[in-house]
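This part of the workshop introduces the protein records we will be handling. A record pairs a protein's sequence with a compact description of its fold. Comparing a sequence with its C-alpha coordinates is the quickest way to learn the format. The record below serves as our worked example for the rest of this section:
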Amino acid sequence: MPNMNDILKKAEETKARWFSFTDKLEERLIELCNASVPELKEAYRNDTDIHKRNYFYLLSGLRGQINSIFEKAEQTQDEKVSDILDELSDELDSIDNDEAYSRLENIKDECYDRMREFEEKADKFIALLENTKTVDYEVEYKAILDEYEQIKDKFKCKQCGSPIFIPELFFITTYVECPACNTQNTFEPSSSAANIEAVAINLAEQRTANLLNAYENELKRERDLYFQKHELELALDFGKDPETNSEISRLEKTRKESIVLAQNTYKEYLKAKFDELIALVPKLAEQNKRVYERQLADFEKTIYN
Protein backbone atom coordinates (compact mmCIF):
# COMPACT_ATOMS: atom_id res chain seq x y z
CA MET A 1 0.00 0.00 0.00
CA PRO A 2 1.34 3.48 -0.88
CA ASN A 3 2.76 5.53 1.96
CA MET A 4 0.98 8.88 2.34
CA ASN A 5 4.06 10.70 3.68
CA ASP A 6 6.24 9.42 0.84
CA ILE A 7 3.69 10.59 -1.72
CA LEU A 8 3.48 14.08 -0.25
CA LYS A 9 7.25 14.26 0.10
CA LYS A 10 7.70 13.38 -3.56
CA ALA A 11 5.07 15.97 -4.51
CA GLU A 12 6.86 18.67 -2.52
CA GLU A 13 10.18 17.72 -4.12
CA THR A 14 8.61 17.90 -7.59
CA LYS A 15 7.23 21.34 -6.80
CA ALA A 16 10.62 22.53 -5.46
CA ARG A 17 12.43 21.33 -8.59
CA TRP A 18 9.82 23.00 -10.80
CA PHE A 19 10.10 26.34 -9.00
CA SER A 20 13.91 26.17 -9.11
CA PHE A 21 13.82 25.33 -12.83
CA THR A 22 11.50 28.24 -13.71
CA ASP A 23 13.58 30.61 -11.54
CA LYS A 24 16.62 29.73 -13.66
CA LEU A 25 14.65 30.25 -16.87
CA GLU A 26 13.55 33.66 -15.60
CA GLU A 27 17.18 34.56 -14.94
CA ARG A 28 17.96 33.66 -18.56
CA LEU A 29 15.11 35.89 -19.76
CA ILE A 30 16.36 38.79 -17.66
CA GLU A 31 19.93 38.40 -18.93
CA LEU A 32 18.70 38.14 -22.53
CA CYS A 33 16.57 41.27 -22.29
CA ASN A 34 19.15 43.33 -20.40
CA ALA A 35 21.67 42.62 -23.16
CA SER A 36 19.20 42.99 -26.04
CA VAL A 37 17.27 46.17 -25.27
CA PRO A 38 20.22 48.58 -25.83
CA GLU A 39 21.23 46.59 -28.92
CA LEU A 40 17.72 46.81 -30.38
CA LYS A 41 17.42 50.55 -29.71
CA GLU A 42 20.73 51.17 -31.47
CA ALA A 43 19.72 48.91 -34.37
CA TYR A 44 16.47 50.83 -34.83
CA ARG A 45 18.23 54.20 -34.79
CA ASN A 46 20.92 53.09 -37.26
CA ASP A 47 18.74 51.06 -39.64
CA THR A 48 18.43 53.29 -42.73
CA ASP A 49 16.04 50.91 -44.49
CA ILE A 50 12.60 52.51 -44.72
CA HIS A 51 10.94 49.30 -43.45
CA LYS A 52 13.60 48.72 -40.73
CA ARG A 53 14.23 45.19 -41.99
CA ASN A 54 17.49 44.68 -40.09
CA TYR A 55 15.86 45.80 -36.84
CA PHE A 56 12.85 43.53 -37.27
CA TYR A 57 15.08 40.60 -38.25
CA LEU A 58 16.99 41.04 -34.98
CA LEU A 59 13.74 41.48 -33.00
CA SER A 60 12.26 38.34 -34.57
CA GLY A 61 15.31 36.29 -33.56
CA LEU A 62 15.15 37.48 -29.95
CA ARG A 63 11.42 36.88 -29.79
CA GLY A 64 12.08 33.36 -31.05
CA GLN A 65 14.59 32.79 -28.24
CA ILE A 66 12.03 33.84 -25.62
CA ASN A 67 9.37 31.60 -27.18
CA SER A 68 11.86 28.73 -27.16
CA ILE A 69 12.51 29.25 -23.43
CA PHE A 70 8.76 29.34 -22.78
CA GLU A 71 8.19 26.16 -24.80
CA LYS A 72 10.91 24.44 -22.75
CA ALA A 73 9.05 25.43 -19.57
CA GLU A 74 5.77 24.15 -21.02
CA GLN A 75 7.29 20.82 -22.01
CA THR A 76 8.92 20.38 -18.61
CA GLN A 77 5.65 21.16 -16.84
CA ASP A 78 3.79 18.58 -18.92
CA GLU A 79 6.38 15.79 -18.70
CA LYS A 80 8.06 16.28 -15.32
CA VAL A 81 5.51 18.07 -13.19
CA SER A 82 1.89 17.44 -14.23
CA ASP A 83 2.44 13.80 -15.17
CA ILE A 84 4.25 13.02 -11.92
CA LEU A 85 1.66 14.80 -9.77
CA ASP A 86 -1.17 13.02 -11.57
CA GLU A 87 0.50 9.67 -10.89
CA LEU A 88 0.87 10.60 -7.22
CA SER A 89 -2.78 11.59 -7.13
CA ASP A 90 -3.70 8.15 -8.48
CA GLU A 91 -1.61 6.52 -5.76
CA LEU A 92 -3.28 8.67 -3.12
CA ASP A 93 -6.74 7.56 -4.25
CA SER A 94 -6.23 4.28 -2.42
CA ILE A 95 -5.61 6.15 0.85
CA ASP A 96 -8.68 7.56 2.53
CA ASN A 97 -7.20 10.86 3.75
CA ASP A 98 -8.93 14.10 2.75
CA GLU A 99 -6.21 16.28 4.26
CA ALA A 100 -3.46 14.60 2.23
CA TYR A 101 -5.52 14.77 -0.96
CA SER A 102 -6.23 18.47 -0.35
CA ARG A 103 -2.51 19.14 0.16
CA LEU A 104 -1.65 17.38 -3.08
CA GLU A 105 -4.27 19.39 -4.95
CA ASN A 106 -2.81 22.60 -3.49
CA ILE A 107 0.64 21.60 -4.74
CA LYS A 108 -0.82 21.02 -8.22
CA ASP A 109 -2.45 24.47 -8.13
CA GLU A 110 0.79 26.11 -6.98
CA CYS A 111 2.72 24.48 -9.84
CA TYR A 112 0.04 25.50 -12.34
CA ASP A 113 0.01 29.09 -11.02
CA ARG A 114 3.80 29.20 -11.34
CA MET A 115 3.46 28.32 -15.04
CA ARG A 116 0.89 31.06 -15.56
CA GLU A 117 3.15 33.54 -13.79
CA PHE A 118 6.09 32.50 -15.97
CA GLU A 119 3.97 32.89 -19.13
CA GLU A 120 2.97 36.41 -18.09
CA LYS A 121 6.61 37.34 -17.49
CA ALA A 122 7.65 35.92 -20.87
CA ASP A 123 4.94 38.06 -22.51
CA LYS A 124 6.19 41.14 -20.63
CA PHE A 125 9.75 40.50 -21.80
CA ILE A 126 8.57 40.26 -25.42
CA ALA A 127 6.66 43.54 -24.95
CA LEU A 128 9.82 45.10 -23.50
CA LEU A 129 11.77 44.14 -26.62
CA GLU A 130 9.03 45.38 -28.95
CA ASN A 131 8.90 48.74 -27.16
CA THR A 132 12.44 49.50 -28.35
CA LYS A 133 11.03 50.98 -31.57
CA THR A 134 10.27 54.26 -29.82
CA VAL A 135 9.26 56.33 -32.82
CA ASP A 136 7.20 59.50 -32.59
CA TYR A 137 4.99 59.11 -35.65
CA GLU A 138 3.50 62.55 -35.02
CA VAL A 139 6.94 63.99 -35.82
CA GLU A 140 7.39 61.75 -38.89
CA TYR A 141 3.96 62.64 -40.27
CA LYS A 142 4.48 66.38 -39.71
CA ALA A 143 7.87 66.20 -41.45
CA ILE A 144 6.19 64.76 -44.56
CA LEU A 145 3.61 67.58 -44.56
CA ASP A 146 6.34 70.19 -44.05
CA GLU A 147 8.29 68.72 -46.95
CA TYR A 148 5.23 69.05 -49.20
CA GLU A 149 4.79 72.69 -48.20
CA GLN A 150 8.41 73.35 -49.22
CA ILE A 151 8.24 71.69 -52.66
CA LYS A 152 4.67 72.33 -53.85
CA ASP A 153 5.58 75.68 -55.50
CA LYS A 154 9.09 74.72 -56.69
CA PHE A 155 8.43 72.04 -59.31
CA LYS A 156 9.22 73.23 -62.87
CA CYS A 157 8.24 72.01 -66.31
CA LYS A 158 10.95 69.96 -68.00
CA GLN A 159 9.97 71.48 -71.38
CA CYS A 160 9.57 75.21 -70.81
CA GLY A 161 10.77 75.70 -67.26
CA SER A 162 7.51 77.24 -66.05
CA PRO A 163 6.55 76.60 -62.42
CA ILE A 164 3.94 73.87 -61.85
CA PHE A 165 1.93 73.96 -58.64
CA ILE A 166 1.63 70.53 -56.97
CA PRO A 167 -2.02 70.59 -55.79
CA GLU A 168 -1.77 67.82 -53.18
CA LEU A 169 0.65 65.51 -51.46
CA PHE A 170 1.36 62.81 -54.03
CA PHE A 171 2.84 59.58 -52.62
CA ILE A 172 3.02 57.67 -55.91
CA THR A 173 4.53 58.64 -59.27
CA THR A 174 2.09 61.12 -60.84
CA TYR A 175 1.82 62.96 -64.18
CA VAL A 176 1.17 66.70 -63.87
CA GLU A 177 0.43 68.98 -66.80
CA CYS A 178 2.28 72.24 -67.33
CA PRO A 179 -0.32 75.07 -67.53
CA ALA A 180 1.97 77.04 -69.85
CA CYS A 181 2.86 74.47 -72.56
CA ASN A 182 0.61 71.49 -71.67
CA THR A 183 3.59 69.13 -71.41
CA GLN A 184 3.04 66.09 -69.18
CA ASN A 185 5.66 66.04 -66.44
CA THR A 186 6.48 63.11 -64.18
CA PHE A 187 6.45 63.96 -60.49
CA GLU A 188 8.36 61.52 -58.29
CA PRO A 189 7.55 61.74 -54.56
CA SER A 190 10.35 61.59 -52.01
CA SER A 191 10.96 58.34 -50.16
CA SER A 192 9.34 59.79 -47.02
CA ALA A 193 6.22 60.92 -48.95
CA ALA A 194 6.01 57.50 -50.62
CA ASN A 195 5.95 56.00 -47.13
CA ILE A 196 3.13 58.19 -45.80
CA GLU A 197 0.59 55.35 -45.72
CA ALA A 198 2.80 53.25 -43.41
CA VAL A 199 3.52 56.29 -41.22
CA ALA A 200 -0.20 57.14 -41.08
CA ILE A 201 -1.13 53.58 -40.03
CA ASN A 202 1.45 53.66 -37.24
CA LEU A 203 0.32 57.13 -36.18
CA ALA A 204 -3.35 56.09 -36.14
CA GLU A 205 -2.42 53.10 -33.96
CA GLN A 206 -0.28 55.32 -31.73
CA ARG A 207 -3.15 57.77 -31.22
CA THR A 208 -5.64 55.01 -30.35
CA ALA A 209 -3.28 52.79 -28.32
CA ASN A 210 -5.22 53.59 -25.12
CA LEU A 211 -8.31 51.85 -26.54
CA LEU A 212 -6.32 48.80 -27.64
CA ASN A 213 -4.74 48.61 -24.18
CA ALA A 214 -8.20 48.84 -22.59
CA TYR A 215 -9.37 45.96 -24.79
CA GLU A 216 -6.35 43.79 -23.92
CA ASN A 217 -6.76 44.55 -20.20
CA GLU A 218 -10.43 43.53 -20.39
CA LEU A 219 -9.44 40.25 -22.08
CA LYS A 220 -7.02 39.58 -19.22
CA ARG A 221 -9.71 40.43 -16.67
CA GLU A 222 -12.10 37.98 -18.33
CA ARG A 223 -9.45 35.21 -18.19
CA ASP A 224 -8.78 35.97 -14.50
CA LEU A 225 -12.50 35.73 -13.74
CA TYR A 226 -12.69 32.44 -15.61
CA PHE A 227 -9.83 30.91 -13.59
CA GLN A 228 -11.31 32.19 -10.30
CA LYS A 229 -14.61 30.55 -11.22
CA HIS A 230 -12.85 27.36 -12.31
CA GLU A 231 -10.95 27.07 -9.00
CA LEU A 232 -14.18 27.45 -7.03
CA GLU A 233 -15.86 24.80 -9.16
CA LEU A 234 -13.01 22.41 -8.40
CA ALA A 235 -13.38 23.15 -4.70
CA LEU A 236 -17.10 22.42 -4.61
CA ASP A 237 -18.19 19.44 -2.53
CA PHE A 238 -20.64 17.97 -5.05
CA GLY A 239 -22.37 21.34 -5.36
CA LYS A 240 -23.64 21.40 -1.78
CA ASP A 241 -22.09 24.71 -0.75
CA PRO A 242 -24.67 27.46 -1.45
CA GLU A 243 -22.18 30.28 -0.78
CA THR A 244 -19.67 28.87 -3.25
CA ASN A 245 -22.41 28.32 -5.82
CA SER A 246 -23.53 31.92 -5.37
CA GLU A 247 -19.98 33.19 -5.86
CA ILE A 248 -19.57 31.04 -8.96
CA SER A 249 -22.77 32.55 -10.40
CA ARG A 250 -21.56 36.06 -9.60
CA LEU A 251 -18.18 35.44 -11.26
CA GLU A 252 -19.83 33.97 -14.37
CA LYS A 253 -22.17 36.97 -14.67
CA THR A 254 -19.25 39.39 -14.29
CA ARG A 255 -17.20 37.37 -16.80
CA LYS A 256 -19.94 37.56 -19.42
CA GLU A 257 -20.21 41.32 -18.86
CA SER A 258 -16.43 41.53 -19.31
CA ILE A 259 -16.65 39.67 -22.63
CA VAL A 260 -19.25 42.13 -23.96
CA LEU A 261 -17.20 45.10 -22.71
CA ALA A 262 -14.06 43.73 -24.40
CA GLN A 263 -15.92 43.24 -27.68
CA ASN A 264 -17.37 46.76 -27.60
CA THR A 265 -14.01 48.25 -26.68
CA TYR A 266 -12.33 46.53 -29.63
CA LYS A 267 -15.01 47.82 -31.99
CA GLU A 268 -14.49 51.32 -30.57
CA TYR A 269 -10.74 50.97 -31.09
CA LEU A 270 -11.17 49.74 -34.66
CA LYS A 271 -13.44 52.64 -35.61
CA ALA A 272 -11.26 55.24 -33.91
CA LYS A 273 -8.13 53.91 -35.63
CA PHE A 274 -9.66 54.00 -39.09
CA ASP A 275 -11.24 57.42 -38.48
CA GLU A 276 -7.73 58.70 -37.71
CA LEU A 277 -6.26 56.92 -40.74
CA ILE A 278 -8.89 58.34 -43.11
CA ALA A 279 -8.25 61.86 -41.77
CA LEU A 280 -4.47 61.42 -42.12
CA VAL A 281 -4.57 60.13 -45.72
CA PRO A 282 -7.84 61.40 -47.27
CA LYS A 283 -6.82 60.18 -50.73
CA LEU A 284 -7.14 56.59 -49.48
CA ALA A 285 -10.41 57.17 -47.64
CA GLU A 286 -12.55 54.82 -49.71
CA GLN A 287 -9.94 52.07 -49.64
CA ASN A 288 -9.54 52.33 -45.87
CA LYS A 289 -13.31 52.39 -45.33
CA ARG A 290 -13.51 49.04 -47.11
CA VAL A 291 -10.62 47.67 -45.03
CA TYR A 292 -12.38 48.84 -41.85
CA GLU A 293 -15.67 47.21 -42.85
CA ARG A 294 -13.87 43.94 -43.68
CA GLN A 295 -11.95 43.87 -40.38
CA LEU A 296 -15.11 44.69 -38.42
CA ALA A 297 -17.01 41.90 -40.21
CA ASP A 298 -14.17 39.44 -39.51
CA PHE A 299 -14.18 40.40 -35.82
CA GLU A 300 -17.95 40.01 -35.55
CA LYS A 301 -17.67 36.55 -37.10
CA THR A 302 -15.40 35.51 -34.23
CA ILE A 303 -18.04 36.78 -31.77
CA TYR A 304 -21.06 35.02 -33.20
CA ASN A 305 -19.49 31.80 -34.50
